Amino acid sequence: MRLLDFLKGERKKSASVAKERLQIIVAHQRGQRGQPDYMPMLEQELLEVIRRYVQVDQDAISISLDSDNDCSVLELNVTLPNRD
Amino acid sequence: MINNLSGNRKFILAKIIVVTSGKGGVGKTTSAAAIATGLALRGNKTVVIDFDVGLRNLDLIMGCERRVVYDLVNVIQGEAGLNQALIRDKRTENLHILPASQTRDKDALTLEGVEKVLNDLAEDFDYIICDSPAGIERGAQLAMYFADEAVVVTNPEVSSVRDSDRILGLLSSKSRRAEQNRDPVKEHLLITRYNANRVDDGDMLNLEDIREILAIELIGLIPESEAVLRASNQGVPVVHDDKSDAGQAYLDTVARLMGEEVPLRFHAAQKRSLISRMFGGGGRR
Ligand SMILES: Nc1ncnc2c1ncn2[C@@H]1O[C@H](COP(=O)(O)OP(=O)(O)O)[C@@H](O)[C@H]1O
Ligand SMILES: [Mg+2]
Q1: DSSP secondary structure code for residue B100 in this structure
Q2: At what angle do helices B138-145 and B158-171 cross, to 10 degrees?
Q3: Residue B116 DSSP symbol
Q4: Nearest by Cα to B154 from B102, B242, B103, B214
Q5: What is the pLDDT of residues B82-110, one digit of tens each?
Q6: ipTM of the complex
Q7: Residue B5 exposed, middle or buried by CB count within 10 Å (0-12, 13-18, 19+)
Q8: Alpha-carbon gap, residue B217 to B222, rounded angstroms
Q9: Nearest 5°: phi and psi at B151?
Q10: Is the beta carbon of B62 within 6 A of some atom in ligand 1?
Q11: Measured distance CA(B249)–CA(B110) in Å, rounded
C-alpha cells in the first residue's frame, strides 16, 4: 500500500481540488443571498460604465450591500490593471 | 392507519415533499419514483406529481405511460377532474401518479392552479411528492413553492453541488414558507450516483465533504448502480428490486424520511486487489 500511496501522492487528488473550488464558489453564492434582485444588473451596468474608461476584466468588479440598523452601504471594488 | 380515520381526514395535513436539484440528469425522477413507491409500500397514501411539463418522464419510470389520459395541466385548466387524471399504481397499493403534459409548454402552470391541486390532494393523501424539472427558473420554483420538505438530489460532482446550493438559496427565499415567515422548508441532502471506490481513490468528492459544503442533513446515499437502468428499462421503480443496493438505499432513505434512525450503508469502498486499484478498478485514469 505504501508504494501505491507514494505513486498516488505524485499529484494532488482531484477530489480535494473539487472541494477547495466548491468551498470558494459556495461562500460567494451565499454572500449574494438575500441581496436585492437588482444587484446583478447594477453590477453589470457599473462594469459597462467603467469599461468606457478603463479596460478591466469581467471579474475585476465586485459589489456588495451591507445593512445594519440605520443605514445600508453599497461597497464597490474595482481592480484596475497595472499602469505600464 | 390514517385510512381508518377517514372521517378525521381533514385534520391531517399531507406532507408536501419536493425532489429538486437545479442540475438536470442527477436522479430527481428516479428518486421521486423510488421515494413515493417506498412511502406507499410502508402504508402511506402517496401521490407523486410530475412537474416537468413538456418533458414528462415520471410516467415511464413508474411504468404507467400507456395509461396517461389527462395530466396536471388539464386539471389546472379545468379540462379534467383530479380523479380523472390520477393514475392508480398497478403494483403498489396506496400509490397514485399525476402525470405532466407532454405537449403544453411550462407556462400552462399557474401558482393558483398548483395551489388548488395540492389543497385538493392534501385532503386524501399523507404524502405529496413533487418531481421538479431541472433549472432554477419558474418550473422548478413552482414545484418547490408549496413544499414542507425538500430532498435535494446531488451527485458527487462540482456543478451538481454548486447547483444544489443555489436551490437551497431559493428554498430559503422563494418558497411559501419563506415568504410567510413560517418555519423554513426542511432540507434533506440525498447524494446519488455515489461510487465509493472512486471516492477511495481520491477522484470523487466524498459524502462528508459534500455534507460539509452544503451544510444540511444527509437523508440518504444512493450508490451508482446497474439496478437503476434495469428498473427504468422495465418501468418498475428500483425499490421493488429490494435485493439491489440502490433499492435498499432508497428504502433506508424512506425510513429516515418517516423519522426512523437507520445506519448509513454503501459508503465504504469494496475491497479490491492492489492490481485492480492500480489499473482502473474504480475507473481511475
Ligand atoms: N444511482 C444511480 N445509478 C446509476 N444510474 C442512475 C442512478 N440514478 C440515476 N441514474 C441515471 O441517471 C439518468 C438521469 O436520471 P433521472 O432520474 O432522469 O434524473 P433527473 O430527473 O434529475 O433529470 C437516468 O439515465 C438514470 O437511469
Ligand atoms: Mg426528471
Answers
A1: P
A2: 60
A3: H
A4: B214
A5: 999 999 999 999 999 999 988 777 778 99
A6: 0.83
A7: exposed
A8: 15
A9: -100, 110
A10: no
A11: 35
Convert the pLDDT of each residue in B149-207 to its tens digit. Answer: 999 999 999 999 999 999 999 999 999 999 999 999 999 999 999 999 999 999 999 99
- B173 to chain A, closest Cα gap in Å: 7
Supply the pTM of this predicted model.
Answer: 0.86
On chain A, the residues whose CB falls within 8 A of the CB of B202 are 8, 13-16
| Number of DSSP helices (H) and strands (E) in chain A, helices first | 3, 2
A62/chain B closest Cα distance in angstroms: 19
A15-34 pLDDT, tens digit each: 999 999 999 999 988 888 87
Amino acid at A70: D
Whose CA is closest to B220, among B33, B31, B25?
A: B31
CB contact under 8 A, B202 and A29: no
| CB-CB neighbours of B144 under 10 Å | 24
DSSP string computed for B2-41: GGGGGGGGGGSPPEEEEEE-SSSSSSHHHHHHHHHHHHHH
